[in-house]
């Protein structure tokens, strides 16, 4: 199981109604591909985050199926529409069944 | 080497992955932009961006990796644009390919050759 997995998310604190904003996410994770070998020549087992989702007030913004070719510490940048004040929720799902979550509130003036 | 051979046999080709994604449909549409560097010094972390206004989903493939699949972005109703950036691993110099499924059911393709100085899939 991956250790010290820490999600980091950047979302503006405020937006105008209907505005499109940019979101950046980064999560510390080795994304062990399952293709590398250790010093003894044994295959290191695959251990990756295989899915990332972002939703706003429960409605999907983006849903990403991830393979081992996504780099260590997966980074995503994408855009979201903000219809009203609410909460963005971010979920990363690990091969081992763990989920890592973060959330950010945004206010519409 | 027996193990390696078995794994290679199991790995699907990029063509098979594209066929699975499109259901065998012709890829005729335009409107997908794939942005990747022409030269990547480090194949462990290569920035790529896909942008396809009106897309439902965009698949990225690294055609020269042992396993070509990289990921699929699905865009929901609150996507502000059908675009995304990430960082990917490339085992060596190769063509990166993206396929977009548009909301009208058509498909678009874009590709970019990336020269890799240090590969990103070794031990």
UniProtKB/TrEMBL annotation, chain A:
<protein>
    <submittedName>
        <fullName>SoxZ protein</fullName>
        <ecNumber>3.1.3.1</ecNumber>
    </submittedName>
</protein>
<dbReference type="InterPro" id="IPR014756">
    <property type="entry name" value="Ig_E-set"/>
</dbReference>
<dbReference type="InterPro" id="IPR030995">
    <property type="entry name" value="SoxZ"/>
</dbReference>
<dbReference type="Pfam" id="PF08770">
    <property type="entry name" value="SoxZ"/>
</dbReference>
<feature type="domain" description="Sulphur oxidation protein SoxZ">
    <location>
        <begin position="10"/>
        <end position="103"/>
    </location>
</feature>
<dbReference type="GO" id="GO:0004035">
    <property type="term" value="F:alkaline phosphatase activity"/>
</dbReference>
<dbReference type="InterPro" id="IPR013783">
    <property type="entry name" value="Ig-like_fold"/>
</dbReference>
<dbReference type="InterPro" id="IPR014880">
    <property type="entry name" value="SoxZ_dom"/>
</dbReference>
<keyword id="KW-0378">Hydrolase</keyword>
């Amino acid at each position: 199981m991956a250790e010290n997995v820490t999600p980091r998310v950047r979302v503006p604190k405020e937006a105008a109604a209907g505005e499109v904003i940019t979101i950046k996410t980064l999560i510390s994770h080795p994304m062990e591909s399952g293709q590398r070998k250790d010093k003894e020549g044994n295959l290191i087992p695959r251990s990756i985050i295989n899915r990332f989702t972002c939703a706003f007030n429960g409605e999907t913004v983006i849903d990403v199926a991830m393979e081992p070719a996504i780099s260590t510490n997966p980074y995503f940048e994408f855009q979201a529409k903000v219809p009203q004040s609410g909460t963005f929720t971010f979920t990363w799902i690990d091969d081992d069944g763990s989920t890592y979550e973060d959330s950010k509130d945004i206010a519409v003036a | 080497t027996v193990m390696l051979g078995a794994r290679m046999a199991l790995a699907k080709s990029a063509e098979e992955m594209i066929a699975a994604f499109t259901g065998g449909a012709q890829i005729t549409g335009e409107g997908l932009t794939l942005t990747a560097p022409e030269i990547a010094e480090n194949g462990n972390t290569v920035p790529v961006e896909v942008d396809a206004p009106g897309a439902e989903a965009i698949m990225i493939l690294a055609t020269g990796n042992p396993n070509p699949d990289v990921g699929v972005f699905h865009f929901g109703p609150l996507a502000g644009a059908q675009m995304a950036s990430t960082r990917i691993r490339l085992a060596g110099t190769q063509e990166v390919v993206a396929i977009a499924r548009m909301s009208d059911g058509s498909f678009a393709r874009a590709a970019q050759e990336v020269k890799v100085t240090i590969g990103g899939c070794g031990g």
